[in-house]
Queue: 4 jobs
Job 1
Amino acid sequence: MKTTALTNTHIALGAKMVPFAGFNMPVQYEGVNIEHETVRQSVGVFDVSHMGEFLVEGPGALELVQYISSNDASTLTVGKAQYSCIPNDDNGIVDDLIVYRVKEDTYLLVVNASNIEKDWNWINSKNTFGATLRNISDDYSLLAIQGPKASEAMQSLTSIDLSGIKFYHFEIADFAGISNVIISATGYTGSGGFEIYCKNTEVQQIWDRVFEAGAEYGIKPIGLAARDTLRLEMGYSLYGNDIDDTTSPFEAGLGWIVKFTKSFNNSEALADLKAKPLQRKIVAFKMLDRGIPRQGYTIVDGSGNSIGTVTSGTMSPSLKYGIGLGYVTADFKAIDSEIYIQVRKKALKAKVVKLPFYKP
Amino acid sequence: MNIPAELKYTKDHEWVRIEGDVATVGITDFAQGELGDIVYVEVETLDETLDAEEVFGTVEAVKTVSDLFLPLSGEIVEFNESLEDEPEVVNSDPYGAGWMIKIKLSDASEVDGLMSADDYKALVGA
């Protein structure tokens, strides 16, 4: 199993470690609820160094990024990032990712850990543009410092104005005594904060100084369990749960990152698909009856007929009721639709709601 | 890890306190730690008579759901209803306020098949 540069640090902190996407990762330290609450109210730190990072460089870099991704990377200026996805040839999704324009002709693609090899092979196979590709995943670490107090708590570690970095923008600057660190105003929690990209050899120093600086704010390490509850309260898709090789971006609610202002792999078929009515759609739902939806549970109508499947579900630590995402037939996609989640022997009532479930 | 010497245990990480022909059942300190923050304890078998090893309920943590297995055959005569509002006491006081059910035993001799505290310690490597 792979480790991150901080694996021993997590173990020393008493984290419960689990295998995730081939990495030995901390799933929780103190407990998922307290960790969740810490990010919602103050600031917490995730080691998400398992994520993959590819550099795309050279004169063909933009053309390659444009061809393999669905969002329009030509709108990125240096210092901006965008959420995007990699369409496959069958109207499904190879992966979702963030595209950073690091320099004029250099893009950083940040992909899911579980898809690093698949994405790497896919992107290389599409590189008829002469771009230079480098997989730097094994050399780089990623810390997500998330929460409403993140800027204030971390300001003493850098010479740049953290509160001045706009959402989905980044700067390359000094941080915690290390130079040339990417400080990105992105994250997977909805509570604001930063993601810090640095070399493996630098991450322990950064981790230590982040905890020193955050001490007076009650900063805590946060595990993957709370990462999942935080993202689900916002309704952010998780690859492998809510989106995969078989889900179209439109039924997945990701039509907003598919831009037909350019052509890209499978764009003609996707344009045709967009013109047709959806057969199924991902919806967000809250439980009205007491119970907790889980991935794989069947969604039924009032008569017990199957209308779909739950793709993500949890008890919401902020809201204290069950929430979930799932695909349903088009008849049930409207907000306020009454649906039922088959939890063991009972069909429990739920309601389709707007995202986010929770506004931090 | 807290493993009280006076209780009996199962391989499914439940504890049992025997008082006459009634057994009180909960999950162990080890189990609550593994499950994480418990948010729901569902027992819908009250007043039913079940065999040992049958599922009598479900415990849900934020991230996981686990079946609860009856450690001894008998009638489920009481459910700790305070868990409906405060399931988190299973985490904070697993052997006390976090008890789950009481069973009126069908066959007291089954008690001999339960594990001692020392056996359970060995099982969880404590």
Note: The helical segments of chain A are 7-12, 32-41, 61-68, 116-125, 150-154, 200-214, 224-234, 267-275.
Job 2
Amino acid sequence: MNRRTVLAIARKDIQATTANLQVWLPMLIVPLLLGIGVPVAMVLAFRFGAASISPEDAQVMLDWVDRLPVVELGTVWPTLNEMSQKLIYLSANYMLAPFFLIIPLMTASVISADSFAGEKERGTLETLLFAPVDMRSLFVGKVMASFVPAVAVSLVTFFLCGLTVNLAAWPLFHRVIFPQLNWLPLMLLVIPGVSLLAILINVFVSARVATFQAAYQISGVVVLPVLLLVVGQVTGVLVLNGWVAILVGLMVAVIDFMLLGKVMRHLNRNQLFESQVR
Amino acid sequence: MTRKAFLELNRVAKGFGGKQVLTDLSFAVHRGEIVGFIGPNGSGKTTTIRLLNGVIDPDAGEISVGGYDPRLDGEAVRRMSGVLTESAGLYSNLTGRQNLRFFADLYGVDDLSRCDELLAEFGLAEAADSRVGTYSTGMKKRLGLAKALLHRPDVLFLDEPTNGLDPEGIRMVLGYIRQLNERDGTTVMICSHLLQQLEQVCHRYLFLQGGRVVEQGTLAELEARYFPTLTLEVETDLVLSDGQYCGIPAKQVGTGRIAFTLPSRDDVPHLLRRLTQEAAVYHAVPVRFDLETLYFKIREGAAHEQKNRAGHRP
């Protein structure tokens, strides 16, 4: 594997993505909306509107706390006196996880679906394969080109989310309430792992189908929902528990490594050329 | 031939999805040659370039490029070869300079001033920071050629290098190919339909048809093979009486112009000596057959042969 080649391919793909407004704008709007807009709106709604929630509805939400592992809320919960404080603390720390699963998966899918199918459609795959580029470097470069932006967008959004949520909730708490430690394994283990999984599947699909559109359809209709469903269910995103997230993260990492090894062994220039270049 | 060939194909066959593109392709190209690869659309020119670069494998036969088998040492072959594909295959959402930088990384070119040098050489210095999507066809072709030359390849494969170029562009590209060949001894293989342009640069020609080479040679060799007689066009006041002059077939081709058909070059001085004694001679030139005339003659012959072979089939 050639480091210079890997970096060149990754950089080129990222340049090509950022050069196209139609591609990167949605990749920016969705994270802003899901990762900042929705959480802040939620906090503000509970801050100013907690009184108008019917006591029964509020109780349904609070009952749900009883199902959380005791350790999670043990020390914090008794210090929260007001209804609005309780609702904000709960929703910010335990209900946003699905959004932060969607953000990297979406970003990763848009870029990775384009990886080989896009090159083919624009007639550049031929030139690329005529170059002295080994297939492993090519593949790893392509994976990096999706992985780096996906994780970067997630982390930046997460940081901004934390900043805005705490700002919005400050008058009620006067301290940082989000994120709690339960977020660490999700952000540092599950999200990179699941992103890589989605990318590996997408790049593989992209190398086999005819057009970007086909690759994107498959990734959007098959890969994304399945991943969201399975990972979402297993981590119990609503009851985001640190230990479960660590376990899921490690499992996903193992699957990633197995898949990566398998794909790397089966890369074949001639097969790719004959199936993809007219 | 005693010299060892630089590119060599021996009885190569290749088909795609049941359609046979190359049936029995054999030819050799020597180091430092510029060879024109000529044939109708779909005759397998592009397939041959792909086989030579090891991006596809032949179904049968042997291939050697600079001593390497592209099937086994594809990477070594691709490091010493430069390819300009028909579509140029550049990234339209990157700038010209970004494109060259990217390929410099892939080809392991360390001297980045090489990119600027080539951009200037192909008249793209001003457009270097514009996106390739905004380039004209000719500019894309020139950038594609610059890309193919980045790593100073030993052998250059050019698929329709002048397609879509304006006359200045054509002159620039052809001049550069010739200069490159003379200066660095680069071996060049050019696929083209534009026969007149090939004539300006190629040392030798390969005619491809029906998946094999049906004819090859230098222009002089081909001329001698297909037009064994010589036509001499003379501007003179001689009056022809019966379509011949002293036993030499002759034909009036315009006012005061007569075309004589001679068995060989050696008969020219003899004819002129006699002619000048009897009439005024203002101008005399041998009619040269261009590549295009030869092309059709060769295609005709190959078609005949094919028909004959088909006829003999039991």
Note: The two ends of chain B are 37 Å apart (CA to CA).
Job 3
Amino acid sequence: MNGQADHDAWVELSDLPTGQRVELSNSQGQHWTGTVVPRHDFSGDRVLQLKLESGYNIGVHIEPTFRFRLLGPVGAGAAPPTRPAARAATDGGDPWIALLTTGGTIASRVDYETGGVRPVKEEREILDFFPELESSGRVRIVPVFDRLSEDLVPDDWRVLAEKVVATFAAGARGVVVAHGTDTLGFTAAALSFLLVDLPGPVVLVGAQRSPDRPSSDGSSNLRAAVEVAHDSRIGEVVVVMHGGPSDDRFAIHRGTWVRKMHSSRRDAFRSRNGAPLGVVEGGKVLLHLPVRPPSKGPARMDGPIDTHAALLWFYPGLAPERASRFVEGCRGVVLAGTGLGHVGADHLPWIRAATERGVVVAMTTQCLEGNVEPYVYSTGRELLRAGVLYLGDLLPETAYAKMLWALGHAPDAAGVGRLLTQDRAGEYHDRHDSRDTA
Amino acid sequence: MKAGLEVHQQLAVGKLFCACPAELTETVTDSFARSLRAAGGESGTVDVAAALQASRGLLYRYEAGPSSCLVEMDEEPPHPLNEEALDTALTLALLLHAHPVDEVEVMRKIVVDGSNTTGFQRTALIAVDGELELGGRRYSIPTICLEEDAARKIRESPGEVTYRLDRLGIPLVEVATGPEIVSGQEAREVAEEIGALLRATKRARRGIGTVREDVNVSIEGGHRIEVKGVQELRMIQEYVEREAARQKLLLEVRDELRRRNAGVPPVDPLDVTELFRAIVSGPFSGAGRGGQVVLALGLTGFAGLLRSPPRSEERLGRELADQARSVGLRGLVHSDELPAYGVSEAIVAALRDRLSSGEMDAFVLVTDHTRERARAALNRVARRARAAVEGIPGETRDPLPDGRTRYSRPLPGRDRMYPETDIPPIAIRADRLDRLRAQLPERPAELEARLARSHGIPIEVVQQIVYGDLLEPFEQLASRGHAPGLVARLLTQDLPAVPRAGPDAPLFEPSLDTLSAMLAAIEAGRLAKEGVPSILAALASGASTVEVAIERAGLSGFSRDDLVSLIRRVVQANSAMVRTRGDAAFSPLMGDVMREVRGRRDGQEISETLRAEIARVRAESGS
């Protein structure tokens, strides 16, 4: 047995590879037999994690006087996954859908020997996992990034847009983009402004539950997204996610209208200021509102974007000097004001100074629904006189994405302003139906 | 015989991973539907497509109620582990001399039947290597776990199963014993002792379905069988004994089958529908009316071994029938029971001819609307019959109300578990264990001794209170000042003896206030303790208060004076007997008086008064 009196067992135990079977004992005669598994991030000091014969993991605090014995060769662990058969080349005429991946995990395998969760990245493996995706036609997987969505930056939107254009050029009839849910709304809005003359749908989709779980919503969301991507009536950017807690209904949201409104629910994504464009139910795509039709193409990216912009959420206690410093160097600022589009009166001076300098300052509401209106209260009128543009019922995030696009397309504040207030991708609602609720 | 137990006890500390109350409900406020992908992430060898096929099309419907939350709907990550539940599990570990782990890791255990909205059960190993001492024997307690209970199955129809979320997330403490139990009686005693220890923590949930036991039974030469989900503790002994008897019979059958070189020929089942077309009643009448097929399977060498041997209730035939039931058929008919069911000798002869079945051979018949289902049933029957020649196949069985068990499914393979990364590991520190040790509840034996001593009640009665789960009402009523002996008798004898209004009538569960009022009436002299059964019966049939019950039972209005005049009258009417028999007249006269008084006066008072009257009369008459 290893472990001399003056030897600290932890030194060697902490170095054992995952899958090594080991027998431990302490000075009170207690023993444990198990397999070393990867250390948990939040495990304590000198704690060895073992998987016992029963399958349960436990943490054992290793005193220096522990003794241990290695058992057998390092666990064979999982057999390597069987290689899926090679896929036949796509027949020329068959319509195909592209699935662009930006990071996060679409599918994963759990190794119950170690408890490790391994993401499945290879196209053939992914499609073997979801054979139903190809029920209406072939799917080709195109990796674009491998990043968490909270790590994406506006330049990534531009790269993604270019990839979408290239994919349509290669013959895809529709494009699905698998995306982390955290900033999916931003990307959807940005792509709505960047992409023109789309010959088919661009469908963003994500998952609220991790793919290792049997209850993951990712697979059903993906299937619904692919159905929408096949739909020849649609020529715009949409988001498809669960429309409720059940797995039988998926909402189709216009990319500029949608926002993640819950941190964890499957139906977190909601269209604001009106209903979704439609639903996928029973495998069928049902459209309830007019959609932008496909164009003859070719798809184009209408760049560039200018990232010298800021999104500022107003709140009581925000010092005007802080706000003014925050927007230094920006050509455009989107404010998320209170109510009908207000900020404290003490912010008027820096706002006026900015607009006089040629900075485009635009107003949205942090209520996340309803129009901003400058004429109703004096604060709004003051802000209007100070040169602030009021952007109707645009979400703050959508206005920010549009600002980046508009700043790249006009050299002066007036030009930018015109582009902002003019509907480009169906982002404004001209009416708010009495039957629509949040 | 060897048996082991796994006791699952629900705790009354709120749910394990959310702040919802642990309450079952009949109110459904909402429902939603999900499908679960069984192949949520198998490593390596699993055929993903096959697993997908298996889960395809099966819809799980979940019912939410007034206390359901987003965690139970799998719409929100779990909250941190309920600390009170963990304390309870650790307390139990200390009571059982088990070693708590240094760090608790919550695991996800994959479940495939839809009973958890996440597709897995959260479970954690809390302590290992404990020991239970009972009646001079030692039983090992290898593991104590803490886990969440599953959603409640409400109904099932083709392609859809409905569960209710109310039970999902209720904490369960699971105590497993080693296979050291050697009799049904021992199994019951060990289960009772573990139950008493769990209740000693004062955190156990009460009521039907709050405790479930899984029992593993094997006999020498046999195989481990798991009887899963026993809810009535008092039936454990019967399940264990019957299971041992069943296995014993199966081994005898195996030996005979081997002697006969028995087997199941590897041929397809035979379609014999036309032989049954003339049958007009019984299970095979469908073949006559059309629409049902009848298939037959030959079992070489099985003749006489499908029915029960003399003096036994077990039989191989039932095991084969349960296999047919497991695919949805009503059962099967085997040759040992024929002729019967409208199947005449002539048909039997024709079948034997078709199957080339000799005197030592048997056959089974199934009938169904669907040929595929009938074939699937016979495939399972064939497999089970072949296994009968090997011995006893390991399996999981369901407990039935009559003490039998029925095949449920194969023994599960190793549990598929991986870490629940949404919950960080929980270090079990020395100061926590010190705190729990300092407030360790009394063990049942200590508790019994204390109660017997302080209340002056016999130990057997105290044991009934402790093991009959009557401790709380007993202590509550005793603390209100009622005589402990009276309370004990009320709870252990009088209440259980109240006859049920009908087989489906709700259980009579009077409130503590009602019982206290009744005891107060006795103490005030308005009711004799002999009248308790009548009062309880009146309350059980709807009397709203004790006073109303006293009226209804006709036990009111019998004063001391009334008693004295009655006794005078009775003694007077029997003066001749009193003269001739003297003191021996007491017994028959006591009977007469008691019949009249009917529990309205205290028995001791009656007996003293009667004796006094008899003595007085004798003195007067000088006899």
Note: The radius of gyration of chain A is 27 Å.
Job 4
Amino acid sequence: MRSAQDVRSVGRRSRFEEIYAAHWAPILAYAVRRTSNGDDAADIVAETFLTAWRRLDDVPPGDEARLWLYGVARRVLANHHRGERRKSELSDRLSRDLALVHQDPEYTGERAVVAAAFRSLADADRELLALVGWEGLDHGEVAAVLGCSRNAVRIRLHRARARFAEAVSQVDSHALVPNAIGDRS
Amino acid sequence: MNDIIAELSVISDEQAAGLVADATHADLIAKITATPYQAERRDMPVRKPARTAGLVAAVAMSVAAAIVAAALLINSAGPPRRLPRPIVAEALSFTTFGGYIDVIVRDPLADAKRYNAEFKAHGLHIRLSLVPASPSLVGTVVYFDGSSAINPITARGRCWTGGGGSHCPVGLRVPIDYHGAASLVFGRAALPGEHYETMVPSTMPGEALHGLRVAGRRVAAVLAMLAGRRVTVARYLVESPRRGNVVAHRVPLRWFVYEADPWAPGQVVLFVGKTMHEVAYVPRTSQPAPTPSPAR
């Protein structure tokens, strides 16, 4: 006969598996879009779901879990960029699967201008625009990820778009080289 | 604009779904769930009183936490208080117990240098800065960026914030052996002529239009209401489904107001449009982003 502890443990694992199955693809895509190699992307994904496992009671139900996970992934990524990378064996196998996913995008023409302008933005502006443009989130969802009000998102997004438009107009297209985005040059 | 940014995405969710072998998922899940979650409590210091959904949970754990009136917390002060060897500082209070340091802001109007010095004196590399905030956020923490090892301390039902509802973080709980860096931004009163950098809707408690209903009313009616509060419109933001908000300084009086946000003392910004209902952004979630390739 299983003890109450065992039952709780099985239930916990089962809930985690449901969350993982429902959301791993968007979280992986989030990580790949913001990293330059498979090792980093795999670390972000593994660390994000490890946090979900440890804080399972905090993960909201349904699709709100995805926004919660984006929020975790964003913070994991920020720590990663600050050099607080905690390389673990959790992600070894995932790293191998992702070895070829980061191909060097070669941008030319208008897209190179857009890429350079996007890269020139402050991290906060870039993340805000990316959550809308890449993850396809609406204002309310961005607010949930960032933990601020929907109105604050609107204002910040408005300002970020203005700065992005300004950056596009400032880019000297003649000075551009291919691969002008990210760290993939 | 969303479209051209979307074109920079290197992968869609659907493409990501095809990258990983089933065996890899099984391996990762097995390794993660083998992690002794209770033994790792150093990394998950705050056991919140109850799970809350959505925005609140996102806030509670979060990268950017809209926090509450610190003035409230002086009375309500979040954490369970069995314990303590409190070392009361002038601007912040630090209470140590159970392997954690609870930090509560006591003086929301102190100079940032004092906060930083007090954090440093406790061996914490936490930076606190101040930004002009709309009235109800003055003296509150409006942004937090730091390690998951640091969690907010919340006080439920004693305050209201735009992002957190009544579940309000009022301080920080930091593991005693935490040596990482974190940033914290506090709301302060705006100087004359200064724009708010952080705000909640103007109709919220403590804000210039508290008690009024502006959403769904025509611009003309809202302007009359504003005049009664001696509030003026700094600018209008006209919603466009594809271009986001477009600034306007005059709009037809028959248009509709969706929301009012604080802009500066005595000034608001109105979100407006031709129709009574706000225009939704075109959802892009299910649309695969194109893979970048040599263009043209």
Note: The helical segments of chain A are 4-33, 38-54, 64-81, 92-97, 109-120, 123-133, 139-146, 150-170.
